[in-house]
Amino acid sequence: MGKKIRILGLHGYGTSGAIFSSQTSSFRRYLEQQYDQIGDGDTFDFDFANGFLDSSPAAGIELFYNPPYYSWWPADPSLEDMAKARERLKIYLKQNGPFDGVIMFSQGCTLGSSLLLEHYKDTPQDPPPFKFAIFICGGPSLKQLESEFGFTINSELWEVDAASRRALARRADTAAILAQGSDRWSNDVNDITDYSVKELVDMVKGPYQIKIPTVHVVGRKDPRNLAGHQLHAISHPDIARIFEHEGGHDIPRNEATSTTIARLVRWVSSSITAEKAKQIRGI
């Protein structure tokens, strides 16, 4: 007999819980239909929360979805803005939890990963806020890693990070969508720097690691592809899996991508994977 697994959804900037629900509907449909031995008949209940602030729409999102739009913090946040969102998320968890896992997109990944890193920094002896995490097209905030969590960031990485953000804004906007559709996506990192993704990932060093099972879904053509690899690199390698799809800063709805993500959700939430995580944490 399987168990019911509750998963919190944290959307990206300028969207909403309802939009994130729509964006994930394809692989969730396969998740419901899929019989997978590793899942032991488990079923899934998703709670897609809205961000704490009213927001303008994310670039191009108004072509596909009507308002309202939300974000977890302003477009150009301070460390205080991000810390405030983290505290509000803790309140949400107390009022609406507990949740077994969390699934996040873009800005939601930054929020969720900072909550987990804060746990390992301040209260590592306590149970983590989630048993597993699924990160989609998102990564950590470098300024949070450096200022709040004591990570060392190579100076050259800052400009690469900023350039990748500018490239995302350029390729995600309404004009690019109307002119090129899905062909607008391109991972611009090779135009920005001569360093490889692995070399760039190795420029981030820190004292903390995410030690719950994680899945990292990244787009091969996402200008922010590097951020997803950075987040994978600060997760424990024995209980982390990364999947690179052929799209950009989005969640493709084709069968191959959807079934792969569904299998990964079953893997990350399974009892077998949970036991391995406990062994790693010495429980």
From TrEMBL:
Q: Which GO terms describe its biological process?
A: secondary metabolic process
Give a Gene Ontology cellular component term annotated to this protein.
nucleus
Molecular function (Gene Ontology), one example: hydrolase activity
Pfam families hit by this protein: FSH1
Coiled coil regions in record: none
The protein's matches in InterPro entries, at most eight in alphabetical order, are given as: AB_hydrolase_fold, FSH-like_dom, LovG
Answer yes or no on keyword S-adenosyl-L-methionine: no
Q: Which UniProt keywords apply?
A: Hydrolase
Domain named Serine hydrolase: residues? 1-259
Q: Which Gene3D superfamilies match?
A: alpha/beta hydrolase
Q: Does the keyword Ligase apply?
A: no
Q: What is this protein called?
A: Putative hydrolase C22A12.06c
UniProt organism field: Talaromyces marneffei PM1
